[in-house]
């Protein structure tokens, strides 16, 4: 057992960790409970299945922290980014993928790797020996979750992650909707028309907000609290914060011109993003929800252009469990009380597909070094990967620890650059230039 790396969970983090370790010559076993044991959100038994959005967000590696993280993972030979690039869909400057083709690609590459074996079945206890990475994500099974809680001596932390609905493209009324990326962003015409837009006037918006607030919502179980992650708020929770919140969030009308009524400025706009390569499915951007299914169809059909919409998947909500990593993990992502176990992915308290995969990549490389008798230097905190792992393993305040996306606020300042909005472009470019050089130096060691 000691010469094999065992990985529990075949999501983004587990898949990337397995790829990194297998390519370094280790024998790897991925323990994936699906499809034998299902979850609320997953639909298949594929590795790296995307259950929420199909977007990896911005691909700008000079002005955006998540785009920088894309760059770092590509430089490290990451499988997740390779498959994302291969199955990319137009998304106006973002990196969106055909979710089914992406997951099938990851699964095929890992199952075909001579150093990788996938074992289906649930792991229910923490192993006492061997080398292990736990990358079970936000839907860690109840039994394993209880074992983790018993070992750490802490109550499990949780927030609720909401899923956006997906609409069949053929059911959308294109006499009312139109294709355009905000501000026509993108280098090609396809990218400049990557989003489908449904406009609302003021009366339609007010009626929509009224219906949203009045709709039947999913109830929480006794003892549960709705500690949502702000980057994934259900739309009804946003509406409860103020009637204009959605109009300044996912329904903002800026940068768009309705070709059906070019002289009429929409009061609000609902955007949908292509969800598969065929263009037959579109997900409603930012419309995560905890409304009951019947209420969803009624409310969403109030959106102009979606009056006759048919849904391939309705929205939902699930519990998302994560560790208080600043108190429980060491700098190499090992559980302090059981250092034969590393954690990776969303369970460590990072938020997002890319961040999860990046922590898997790092955990895989750290495990390789340890099993080969080497010690890697710490990842520079000036890099996107280093900034994230530094944050979750000690940089964050343990008492208020919450899941975090990568952002430039986690990076050490660059001396001599002015702050504020006016200096932001130069400051971000300095961050990314420094990060790329430091990351490449770390990889070369």
Automatic annotation (TrEMBL):
EC number: 2.1.1.74
SUPFAM superfamilies found in the cross-reference section: FAD/NAD(P)-binding domain (SSF51905)
Cofactors that this protein relies on: FAD
Compartment(s) of residence: Cytoplasm
Gene3D superfamilies xref list: FAD/NAD(P)-binding domain
Coiled-coil blocks: none
Stored InterPro entries: FAD/NAD-bd_sf (IPR036188), MnmG-rel (IPR002218), MnmG_N (IPR040131), TrmFO (IPR004417)
Highest taxon above the source species: Bacteria
GO biological process: tRNA methylation; tRNA wobble uridine modification
Domain MnmG N-terminal as annotated: residue spans: 5-374
Annotated GO MF terms: flavin adenine dinucleotide binding; tRNA (uracil(54)-C5)-methyltransferase activity, 5,10-methylenetetrahydrofolate-dependent
Keywords: Cytoplasm, FAD, Flavoprotein, Methyltransferase, NAD, NADP, Transferase, tRNA processing
Gene Ontology cellular-component terms listed: cytosol
Major location (coarse): cytoplasm
Group of enzyme by EC: transferase
Pfam families in the record: GIDA (PF01134)
Reactions it catalyzes: uridine(54) in tRNA + (6R)-5,10-methylene-5,6,7,8-tetrahydrofolate + NADPH + H(+) = 5-methyluridine(54) in tRNA + (6S)-5,6,7,8-tetrahydrofolate + NADP(+); uridine(54) in tRNA + (6R)-5,10-methylene-5,6,7,8-tetrahydrofolate + NADH + H(+) = 5-methyluridine(54) in tRNA + (6S)-5,6,7,8-tetrahydrofolate + NAD(+)
Residue positions binding FAD: 9-14
HAMAP family the UniProt entry points to: TrmFO
Protein family membership: Belongs to the MnmG family. TrmFO subfamily.
The protein's role, per its UniProt record: Catalyzes the folate-dependent formation of 5-methyl-uridine at position 54 (M-5-U54) in all tRNAs.
Stated name of the protein: Methylenetetrahydrofolate--tRNA-(uracil-5-)-methyltransferase TrmFO
Gene assigned in the entry: trmFO
